Amino acid sequence: QVQLVESGGGLVQAGGSLRLSCAASGSIFSFNAMLWYRQAPGKQRDLVAAITRGGIITYSDSVKGRFTISRDNAKNMVYLQMNSLKPEDTAVYYCAADRDYSRAWGQGTQVTVSS
């Protein structure tokens, strides 16, 4: 079972930037897709961005144009560059890795955007 460890969260003012990192214990190329989700207090966990093995990228409408997902297969790392952050981006951000019949999750990293 792959292990995913997120880092890079923190407190930032509105308009600022953060880059989240997700380190995988195995080859991320073995996964169908790598994803970033987020969950705000009292809300469901929502998909933020995803990148497939073939490089197809999708974003939620709420972050399109502000966030960028990328990956480094050689380092088994996935990143989420977050720019122009808004208070509504405050959430715990989770990295996930998809295989055909399973999904692995990281423990999450807190992002707090102050107004």
Round the mean pLDDT to the nearest integer and report it: 96
Please indicate the percent range of residues in DSSP E strands (runs of 2 or more): over 45%
Q: Encode the helix/strand succession as letters.
A: EEEEEEEEEEE
Number of strands: 11
Structural notes for this entry:
With 115 residues, the chain is mostly beta strands. It has strands spanning 4-7, 10-13, 18-24, 33-39, 45-52, 57-59, 67-72, 77-82, 91-98, 103-105, 109-114. The strands form two sheets. Strands 2, 4, 5, 6, 9, 10 and 11 form a seven-stranded mixed sheet that branches. A four-stranded antiparallel sheet has the order 1-3-8-7, with no helix packed on it. Strand 5 and strand 6 form a beta hairpin. The N and C termini lie far apart (39 Å). The mean pLDDT is 96.
